[in-house]
Amino acid sequence: MLLPKAAFSNVYPMKTDATHANRLANRIDDKRDDLIQLTQELIRIPTLNPPGENYLEICEYLARRLEKHGFETNFIRATGTPGDSERYPRWNLLARRDGPRKGDCVHFNSHTDVVEVGQGWTTDPFGGALIDGKIYGRGSCDMKGGLAASIIAAEAFLEDVPDFAGSIEISATTDEETGGFGGVAYLAEQGHYAHVDHVIIPEPLQKDRICLGHRGVWWGEIETHGEIAHGSMPFLGDCAVRHMGAVLSEMEKTLYPKLAQKRTAMPVVPEGARQSTMNINSFHGGQAEPEADYTGLPSACVPDSARMIIDRRYLMEESRDEVVTEIEDVLNHLSETRPNFTYSLEELWSVSPTMTEKDAPVVTTVAKAIKDVLGKDPEYVVSPGTYDQKHIDRIGKLKNCIAYGPGLLELAHKPDEYVGVDDMIQSAKVMGLCLIDLLAVE
Questions:
Q1: Measuring CA to CA, which of 46, 63, 136, 222 is 20 to 30 A from 124?
Q2: What residues does 351 pair with on adjacent strands?
Q3: What CATH number is associated with residue 73?
Q4: How far apart are CA 192 and CA 183, in angstroms?
Q5: 342 with 430, same domain?
Q6: 269-297 burial, b if ≥16 CB within 10 A, otherwise e?
């Protein structure tokens, strides 16, 4: 696609910038087959999390490619972070290419881990099938398609503007799907974002959207206590599962209606996420699930423990303390009204909401590029769930960060997940124009 020079006259002050942009767009079009193959090969490395499989393999694959384009690569293991073990080490890749002139550092960050496959697939989840212009597979949309698009954008830029000012970084990080503590959080704690000026995270928020941030999250575990007894004489024990059932009932009666009334000024998408929400993430009561090779029946016991993990998403208008107090109010009410009700409550992790200002440099740069490539102004949105911007903000102390990438958010974690090839091409052009704007202009 040849972009009209007039589209760049007010964006790129140097006379040659429109020429750079047109050449870059053509280069990315010429790399279509390469983009498809790259995305397919990334999908075919099953980086399932949990437990965290093949992290080193995908880092090695990416390093081999990026080193051919002059990037220096650094393998970083997040030793001691949640999930890290000798069997499942948390390996991250940080690649950097410096230009011959001083300038800003533009950092593209993508997570390499993908969630469980689940049921309902009609294609091979790790096959990377190309069907009607769409590449199917677990992680295609979230977010290996975005990772591939950012790599193609950077490579096309480097071919066209080898004398750029500044540096380009591409990171491939772990564990975003389980909090990001073995990935971006670890890199931020080690100071790897101290020299970075602009961050683009190619999460699948759609090619014409700029995601400014995300809602807050609070994860907690509630345990209700009981007393074990023979299942034929439950009156001699105290059923912890029934106590947890009372917790669920009280939440349905009082807490969920309260959350539904809370609304935010944040431009969260989809519309249903503009209120406070809470998901029951898991529920465990009684005996542990038997090993896979055990085919017998469970023993007859009254459960003396039940545990429930809750995933509470909250708004800029709320505080973490308010979120915790609402949960405690439910539990304390039951302590006062339900015989023998006792509980424990543990916070698993918590992150505050974050939202970058619309006039931040990376936002205005991406907005101009979207206008030039797609011929429309971007939609500014906020993600319903957190992503790694939270760590770049709170640990890395860098506010100039957004999510922008190809793919439909609604497909993430679903069966038959896919990413459109045309969407990746257009997103790559947007990212490439951002590099021209930030690194190629004197």
A1: 63
A2: 217
A3: 3.40.630.10
A4: 11
A5: no
A6: beeebbebbbeeeeebbbeeeeeeeeeee
